[in-house]
Amino acid sequence: MSRFEALLDAARKRARPFAMTSIGMPSTDRSGARAHATPGKIQAMPIKPSQPPLSAKPRSAKPRRLVPWAAMLAATVLLAACSQEQSKAPAGMGGVGKPEVGVVTLHPQSVAITAELSGRTAASLIAEVRPQVNGIIQQRLFKEGSEVAAGQPLYLIDPASYKADYDSAVAARQKAEAALPSAQAKFDRYAGLLKQNVVSKQDYDDAAATLAQAQADVASARASVETARISLDRTSITAPIAGRIDKSSLTPGALVTANQDTVLTTIRALDPINIDVTQSSTNLLNLRQAISEGRLKISGPNVSVKLKLENGTIYAQTGKMEFTGANVDQTTGTFALRAEFPNPDRLLLPGMYVRALVEEGVAQNSFLVPQRAVSRNTKGEATAMVIDAAGKVEARVLTVRNSVGNNWLVDAGVGDGDRVIVEGMQLVRAGGDATGVEVTIDEATGEVKDRGQTSAVPAPAKMASSGQQPAPGASTGN
């Protein structure tokens, strides 16, 4: 029987009314004859009006009035017993009444500093295809949206008139070439006769001029043939670069003119592909200052870049920084950067929004404090709660540089071996006592994923004082 049931049973016994026992007494009938007493039965007998009945005795009402008082007494005793049980240390408290909090011990390490810059993808090469001769499009020789090679025919313009011009130019060249041997022979003959003084100097000069004119006619005819050939070749429009071709803006049968404003189609080279991003001039100054002060060590002239896509995934290929802008935009206060990435699978298309992760350098002997351990005071300063060697909670003001994953890169405010509270900060305050339990932070989510042993008291002594087993790791918010 539990203690609670025993207390209720005692209360019932105290409140139970006195039971009436069977009595026997003589009775008298109306004639005045006395009746014999019958044991075990209550005989009816006349009662005088002046005589009070047995049930009207005031003594019999006292046990009934004790019922509420007995219940109140039982409830009081029960509450006292519960208070004694609740006076024990609750879960989450140390063996001596100290609150248990999750801590992470800090140690200096080398941290790769990256800058996450937003930008857009852009094709490495872009070619707008326009006609260079007049005419009517006869055929479209490519599939829209496909990959084309440099020099591949795209459109065919009616070549009939250009073929006739070419033939005419060839005929003119032949005519000029036919007149050249006669002029050459006449000049050679006059040159020999001039030495014999058979012909005059004027005749010789006329023969030389005729030869030069014939040679010029041949050269002009040859140039006309080349011009006609170029115009004829341009009736077949070819791809100037290799890449992916867009849709065609005109169909066969359309009339086009040389160097028109309307673009027939556009070709974009997608492998490699460029990433155009911007960075503030303030970050550039901070970066160069950190390098000059030795807080940041650059890895070399070749800066590697990683890419985060719109859906949050990391692009498999690694790029490199191509150039940095030489001027700062006066409107936005930023300067341009361009990175180049391989794109063999054509996963990246021009115009996509991406975030470039640029490796700026390595910060040596730096501290990473979990972001869940850092809060802000009324002044807006970053603060963290630290347990010192004596088990006292201390509030520290931190100098935060930037974020690295789910951590803050801290320049000042913490030291080697400091135990920063990351779980249970609502249970402690600055100057109070606390028991630290080492926990493990999930780098992907920033949540607590595993709890270790108490860092201030050995595990066997702690379990002996508390009388309970350590709880398994659990992720909790602050």
From TrEMBL:
It is found in: Cell envelope. Residues 365-426 form the Multidrug resistance protein MdtA-like C-terminal permuted SH3 domain. Residues 126-267 form the Multidrug resistance protein MdtA-like barrel-sandwich hybrid domain. Residues 22-60, 446-478 are annotated as: Disordered. Belongs to the membrane fusion protein (MFP) (TC 8.A.1) family. It comes from Mesorhizobium qingshengii. Pfam families: Beta-barrel_RND, BSH_RND, HH_MFP_RND, RND-MFP_C. Residues 272-361 form the Multidrug resistance protein MdtA-like beta-barrel domain. InterPro entries: MdtA-like_b-barrel, MdtA-like_BSH, MdtA-like_C, MdtA-like_HH, RND_pump_MFP. NCBIfam families: RND_mfp. Residues 166-235 form the Multidrug resistance protein MdtA-like alpha-helical hairpin domain. SUPFAM superfamilies: HlyD-like secretion proteins. Residues 465-478 have a biased composition (Polar residues). This is Efflux RND transporter periplasmic adaptor subunit.
